[in-house]
Structures are given as structure tokens and as C-alpha cells.
Amino acid sequence: MERIGFIGLGLMGKGMALNLVKAKYPLTVYDINPQPVKELVSAGATAASSPKEVAEKSEVVITMLTSSPHVEQVMFGPSGILAGLKKGNTIIDMSTIDPMVTRKVAAAASEKGIEMIDAPVSGAPPKAADGTLSIMVGGKKEVFEKCKPILDVMGKKIFHVGDVGMGEVVKLANNLMAALAGMGVFEGFLFGTRLGADPRVLYEVATASSGNSWVLQTRVPVPGVLPDSPANKDFAPGFTVDLMVKDLGLILSAAEANKIPLLGATLIHQLLEATQAAGMNKKDWSAVYKIICRLAGQEA
User: Fold this and answer.
1) Does 171 participate in catalysis according to the annotation?
2) CATH code for residues 4-163
3) In the predicted model, what is the mean pLDDT of residues 69-88?
4) Could you report the per-residue pLDDT of 164-211, keeping only the tens digit for each?
5) Which of 171, 246, 283, 290 is catalytic?
6) What is the spatial distance between Cα 185 and Cα 196, in angstroms, rounded to a whole number?
7) What homologous superfamily is domain 169-295 in, according to CATH?
8) What DSSP string describes 30-97?
9) Is the full-model pTM beyond 0.70?
């Protein structure tokens, strides 16, 4: 089996890496946080002291990081991934970042004879842990096919969506749809409950009607309606406000560069920034419901 490196063992990455260990892939890991590294080593992985060392010990290096600057930091420089990989090796970047940064890294990798695909994911930490993520892959079809057995360990629904960078575009478009669907769900619950509707009845009717969405099925903003909703646990994440603000920022930046007016994206981005400012940045992004309620003169 191919030797794999994994960099970025956060809420999502740790579960993904553990699945690779369970699948018996020889795995070398690195993270600035020592605790998840210790957990992976206990499961059978090998620790490395730098991204370069991960690359030197691997044929395929996977990155799962939070932002474009983080990806650039681990890719470039004397202790970066590109300094350690050899010609013919492969990078799978599973972070959600700026598509232009993805293409910049891919171009630098190509100059060294290194292949790259971008493969951002959709799904919360439980799906990362049980290997049922949705994965959107951009890159050469032959590289995608070569890497698919590895991706199959981490995901249930895997899509090849175009050239390198297109995985990021499709992932960001998906997150934009989710954010705007959330806006509808949260305002719908504010409106309905304010006028006296039972939130359980509202949920039952909407899931069977045109108001249904993935957000409704996972993030009802009123406690006690949906067992696994973040609202039941004071909006514990899930997918944090910080991460949704980051993704919407990437979307709006790309939209501005391409002269695409996104009115809804601008509004939900501002509401989520208000949620950050209110100290809820580490909460699940559905905590924006609290801000929407405050604007209507009530507390959620």
C-alpha cells in the first residue's frame, strides 16, 4: 500500500486520519497540536517533526487545514511539503481554501513533477469519523482515479468535478447554498414561533413540504425539536461560525474578482460576523439564529 502523510489533525482531520490507519495504510502525521498526534501514534501512525519530514516519508501527502495561509505555510519554504516530496509523488489538499491558492500550489508542484488534486469535504466531524464524507475532487482524471482508493476510506460520495481548483469552487458554492438555506430556516422559525406556532409542528410540516432542506434536518435552531441539533447543546459545533465566515469571505472575494453580485451571501456573512463579534465564534454557525432573534427584539 502507498505510504501516506497526513497534516492537519483538527476536528475533521483526526477522524479522517484514523480511518486511514484502520485501513492499514502506513501513515505519517504532523500537527502543531501534540495531542491528536499522540492519539494517532497510539492507533498505529508515525509522528513527524515537520511537513517536510512527512513528505520525505510519504508517496501521497494529505493536508486538512483551516485556511489558505495555513496551506501555503505547510507547502512552501525549506521545511515545507514541496521541499520533501519527490517527482511522481502526489498531494491531496482536502482543505477548503481560495481556488487561486490551490492553483498556485498545484503549479509549483507541477514544476517539480509532483501531481496535485484538491478534494475539499462536506460533512461534520461524525461523518469524518465514520468515513462517510462527501468529497469534491478537482484535478486530472487519471490522478483522481489513482487516489480514489484512498478517498474511499474517508468518504462515501466522491465526485470528480473538473480540473484542479474546481473542487474548491464546487465546495464553496455548496456552502453558499447551505448558508442561505440556513437563513431561511432560522427566519422561518423566528417568524413561525413568534406568531404562536409549535416548533415541533413547524419542523414536521416543513420537512414534508417545500421548506425542507439539509439545514432544517440537521440544525433546527430551537432546542428540543431535533435530538442532534447543535441548539440542544448551546450551539456546540459542528461547523463553527469562524469557519463559515472564512468560507463566505472566500466566496465574496472570488465573486468580487469575477463581478458576480451575491446579495444573500453578503447579508448572511455580515450576520455571521455579528455572531463572531458577540463572542460566539467557536459555536456552531447556526448560532447566528441568536443574532437574528436579537434583531427582532427577543433572545433565542
Assistant:
1) yes
2) 3.40.50.720
3) 96
4) 999 999 999 999 999 999 999 999 999 999 999 999 999 999 999 999
5) 171
6) 16
7) N-(1-d-carboxylethyl)-l-norvaline Dehydrogenase; domain 2 (1.10.1040.10)
8) E-SSHHHHHHHHHHT-EE-SSHHHHHHT-SEEEE--SSHHHHHHHHSSTTSHHHH--TT-EEEE-S--
9) yes
